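Re: that chain you flagged

S.,

Sorry for the slow reply, it's been a week of failed gels. I finally had a moment to sit down with the sequence you sent. For the record, here it is as I used it:
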Amino acid sequence: MIDAVDYQLIAAVQKGLPIAARPYAVVAERLSLDEQEVIERLSRLKSQGLIKRWGVVVKHRQLGYRANAMIVMNVPDERVAEIGAKVSQQACVNLCYQRPSQGDTWPYNLYCMIHGKSREVVLQQWQELQQVCDLADYAFEVLFSRRCFKQRGALYRHNQAQDVLHG
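Prediction finished late last night. Pasting the structure tokens below so you have them in one place:
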């Protein structure tokens, strides 16, 4: 069960934490709460599964990483977990996940994202990744991004009137 303070807290943090030495204290002050209460409430919301995860969105282009590619691979379904675990441990991989293939139209079932300062660097990292993870026998495509879209998590709005009417 969550209350109005939880909804305010979710609204306060869903766009990101403030950049501060003690970000939870800043959020607490904005909501007239104690810092420890903010931490405890967020921990409870996470343990209840209402907050799935905390994440960081790094603006890689501002850090000089101008090239990024999604590598899509077609690996045997029974080996996806094993190979995905190995791929995801490599320093050059920022993201790794499985999606069901779509037959001959789209046979790929394992995806990983690599960022680099140039296309050449990304391709070199991919070659090294293929060797380290024994990927040479699997069909793949290297899909470079053409545009950078704004990255953010989902935003939720709370309507207390709905709680009164439907709660």
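What I noticed first: The domain at 4-55 is CATH 1.10.10.2890 (Arc Repressor Mutant, subunit A).

Talk soon,
D.
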